[in-house]
TrEMBL record:
HAMAP family: DusA_subfam (MF_02041). The active site is at C95. FMN binds at P12, M13, M14, Q65, K134, H166, N206, G207, G208, G228, R229. Its EC number is 1.3.1.91. This is tRNA-dihydrouridine(20/20a) synthase. Residues 10-325 form the DUS-like FMN-binding domain. Its cofactor is FMN. Pfam families: Dus (PF01207). Catalyzes the synthesis of 5,6-dihydrouridine (D), a modified base found in the D-loop of most tRNAs, via the reduction of the C5-C6 double bond in target uridines. Specifically modifies U20 and U20a in tRNAs. The keyword NADP applies. One of its GO terms (molecular function) is tRNA-dihydrouridine20 synthase activity.
Length: 330
């Protein structure tokens, strides 16, 4: 299977980009790359592998993001990811949360570029699929371009050719993960300079990007754009990606068609796992933003948030919600 280029991707987001969210996003775009939530090596080596790695074949192209700092453990986890059918293994060097720091991985790894290089080499030796790195542009108050340049140089020497650059510093003490996504200033020019200095590498930019015109501007300077929370809160943005960025002439699904496309999947998931193993809300919660910006959006969200109806586990709740926006969604 020939994979599409990583011109557009949806960021790994904890508690959000699970398999149900990714299946939903795939109804909107065939070519956009999708990423799992970060999965720690410990969860894979000592936990329920199927729970963390199972996904639907329709999700391709899909990447597994790993959190860890032990080369041997990352190699074993990457091998599991390849065996389960993922198209890419991504190493998290950008998460600033204290929990991740206590595990000595995430953004703090940027202070140890040789360790990251060793991790990348171990994973590349273990798998035949791409191994990529997602990182910040600096740590705490260090805004030196040389810091991130040297980090990429060291990791690229280990064979990594794709870097996803979240264009903010990570503040490891004093800011929450949410604040780390909002307070450190965005410095897109750093990612642009990285592409100029490393033209042979694939540089993908991430951070605060919300509109198609913004994406257009970034693609003049780098190879790809990764969308974060805007892709979750306003998922219908993805409906324009295939034609605009991949030259796909297929007519995108309307919002109503997306809802109808989700129904067989939701029915199948509930039948497979049962109400005790999977709740309807586990899937419908990812769809709340589908009608963002159009009349009826609030009523749509309210219908999908009705606790009493959700508890009944009837997927036809989606059809009730759809009535709030039809015929606009048709």
């Amino acid at each position: 299977m020939k994979l599409p280029p990583r011109r557009l991707s949806i960021a790994p987001m904890m508690d959000w980009t699970d398999r149900h969210c990714r299946y939903f996003h795939r109804q909107l775009s065939h070519h956009t790359w999708l990423y799992t939530e970060m999965v720690t090596t410990g969860a894979l080596l000592y936990g329920d592998v199927a729970r963390h790695l199972d996904f639907s074949q329709e999700e391709h192209p899909v990447a597994l993001q790993l959190g860890g700092s032990e080369p041997a453990d990352l190699a074993k986890s990457a091998r599991l990811g390849e065996q389960w059918g993922y198209d890419e293994i991504n190493l998290n060097c950008g998460c600033p949360s204290e929990r991740v720091q206590k595990g000595a991985f995430g953004a703090c790894l940027m202070n140890e570029p040789q360790l990251v290089a060793d991790c990348v080499k171990a994973m590349r030796d273990a798998v035949s699929i791409d191994v990529t790195v997602k990182h910040r542009i600096g740590i705490d108050e260090n805004e030196s371009y040389g810091f991130v340049r040297d980090f990429i140089g060291a990791v690229a020497a280990a064979g990594c050719t794709t870097f996803i650059v979240h264009a903010r510093n990570a503040v490891l003490k004093g800011l929450s993960p949410k604040e780390n996504r909002e307070i450190p200033p965005l410095r897109y020019e750093v990612a642009y300079q990285l592409k100029r200095d490393f033209p042979q590498l694939e540089i993908i930019i991430n951070g605060g990007i919300k509109t198609l015109p913004e994406i257009d501007v970034h693609l003049q300077h780098v190879d790809g754009v990764m969308i974060g929370r805007e892709g979750y809160h306003n998922p219908y943005l993805l409906a324009a990606f295939d034609s605009r960025y991949y030259g796909d002439s297929t007519t995108p699904k309307s919002r109503a068609e997306v809802v109808h496309a989700m129904l067989p999947y939701i029915h199948a998931q509930l039948a497979q796992y049962g109400p005790k193993g999977l709740r309807l809300n586990s899937m419908t919660r990812h769809m709340l933003g589908l009608t963002a910006g159009i009349p009826g959006a609030r009523a749509f969200r309210q219908a999908l948030s009705d606790a009493k109806k959700l508890s009944q586990g009837n997927p036809n709740l989606l059809l009730d919600a759809l009535q709030a926006i039809e015929p606009l969604a048709a």
